[in-house]
UniProtKB/TrEMBL annotation:
Interacts with atp1b1 C-terminus. It is found in: Cell membrane. This is Sodium/potassium-transporting ATPase subunit beta-1-interacting protein. The gene is NKAIN4. Keywords: Cell membrane, Membrane, Signal, Transmembrane, Transmembrane helix. The chain crosses the membrane at residues 34-55, 62-86, 152-171. Pfam families: NKAIN. Residues 1-21 form the signal peptide. One of its GO terms (biological process) is regulation of sodium ion transport. One of its GO terms (cellular component) is plasma membrane.
Length: 208
C-alpha cells in the first residue's frame, strides 16, 4: 500500500512538473529567452522519462529523473539569482538570449496591471520611425514573477526528488526479493530430476 501511494504521488508530481514546464516554455518562447527554452525542453523530456519509468516500474529511468532534478534545482536557483541580480548578475544583460537579441522576459511588458506606453524617438540619428516603449503601473514587477515561478519549480522538484528516491528503493527491494525466491532462476528451487533416456529404454525392454 505504501509503495502504491508513493508511486501514485510521484506520477502526480511528474504530471504537475510537466504542465508547469509547458506553461513556462510558452512564455519563454514569447520572450525569446533561448537558454530557458533549451532548459525547459530537456526538463520536459526527462520528466516524461521519469513518468514512464514510474508507471512501467523502471527504476533506471527514475534514477535519470532524480539526477536531472538536482540539475533542475540548480538551474532555477541560477534564474532566481539572475533576476534578483545576486553575485554581480544583471537582469538587463542578454545572457538568457545567448547575446542574440535584446529581448527580456515576456512578463516585463505583459505583467499584471502593466500599461505599455510608446513614444516616437524623433531627432536621433538612425532611430527615426522607432518607438521607445515604457511600462508603468505594474502590480508585480516581472523579475518577481520569474522568481516566483522558479521557486515553485524548486519546491515541486525537491518533493519529487524525495519521492523518486523512495520509489527507487522500493522497486529495488521488490526485485531483490523476487530474485531471492527464484523468480529469475533458470533452475527452480524444487527441481524434479528426470530419469536419463537410457534408463527409460532399459525399463522398456525388461522381460515380462
Amino acid at each position: 500500500m505504501a509503495c502504491c501511494s508513493a508511486r501514485c504521488t510521484l506520477i502526480f508530481l511528474c504530471t504537475v512538473q510537466l504542465l508547469a514546464a509547458l506553461q513556462r516554455q510558452v512564455f519563454d518562447f514569447l520572450g525569446y529567452q533561448w537558454a530557458p527554452i533549451l532548459a525547459n525542453f530537456l526538463h520536459i523530456i526527462i520528466v516524461i522519462l521519469g513518468l514512464f519509468g514510474t508507471i512501467q516500474y523502471r527504476p533506471r529511468y527514475i534514477v535519470v529523473y532524480t539526477v536531472w532534478t538536482a540539475v533542475w534545482v540548480t538551474w532555477n536557483v541560477f534564474i532566481i539569482c539572475f533576476y534578483l541580480e545576486v553575485g554581480g548578475l544583471s537582469k538587463d544583460t542578454e545572457l538568457l538570449t545567448f547575446n542574440i537579441s535584446q529581448h527580456q522576459s515576456w512578463w516585463s511588458e505583459h505583467g499584471p496591471g502593466c500599461v505599455r506606453k510608446e513614444a516616437p524617438m524623433v531627432g536621433m540619428k538612425g532611430l527615426d520611425g522607432h518607438s521607445y516603449i515604457s511600462v508603468v503601473d505594474c502590480t508585480l514587477e516581472y523579475q518577481y514573477i520569474e522568481v516566483i515561478q522558479s521557486s515553485l519549480q524548486i519546491l515541486v522538484a525537491l518533493v519529487g526528488f524525495v519521492y523518486a528516491c523512495y520509489v527507487i528503493s522500493v522497486f529495488t527491494e521488490e526485485e531483490d526479493s523476487f530474485d531471492f525466491i527464484g523468480g529469475f532462476d533458470p533452475f527452480p528451487l524444487y527441481h524434479v530430476n528426470e530419469k536419463p533416456n537410457n534408463l527409460l529404454l532399459k525399463q522398456t525392454y525388461l522381460p515380462a
